[in-house]
Amino acid sequence: MYDSKWRGVSIKSIADRNRVSHEETSYIVDSTGAPVASLLAFNAWPLFVQALIFIPGVTFLNSELDRINFYFSSLIFSFYSILTIFGVLILSLDINHFAGKGLQKARKRALETGELDAPDATPISSPELHISNAPEGYSSHVIEFIIPLVILIFIAVGSFFWLGTPKVNWAFGAALIVSVLIALLKGMSLKQVVDGIGTGLKGVIDKSIKLELDFVKKLFPILLLYFEDESSVIPSLSSDKFSSDSEQSIP
Length: 251
Hints:
Layout: H1 2-17, H2 22-31, H3 34-39, H4 45-52, H5 64-73, H6 79-92, H7 101-113, H8 143-163, H9 168-185, H10 190-249
């Protein structure tokens, strides 16, 4: 969820300028999240999956390294991820014959009217992530994005080849440190850097929690109905068993 949030913020301005509806943007962001992370797995994904495939007694899955190697060797069978990314590619090439009616309608609305949201939509995107709060006199440059990104990829991929497992925490930590150092060297004060990090985290965490609560709110009635059904079935089974036992005990 957090990964999708970050990528959504990164591409939203570009997508908006090109009149890409927010429905289509959401689809692209979501469909290039877990599928890409599972195929280009120089992240925490292999560590998560290897814990799920531990099977006692299976010798080739004994150690963590064995399970990670098994994961990478099985990537060619990740049909869902491959087909999902292929579907995004087709949609990006303006081949939308396979898209649903809702997505086609959203694309037509955005291109013809410029309305990126549906009339009854309730956007939940944080305003903090779309407003520039850069200090006066500070001019950003694309290199401030490229350098930390290159460092992140280099450490994540390099540690996999050198150490046998991708050190994701090292990669993100180094990228953050480099970003802070660049900002400080360009004249931003330490307080401004800390405030900027806090503003970004506030926007992401706030809306992510709202998404999770909305999901729980929609799931709760279903669980309530399920447990109500279970509670009605269990007493009936118990009463049937009690009646049967009582009848057998009567001479």
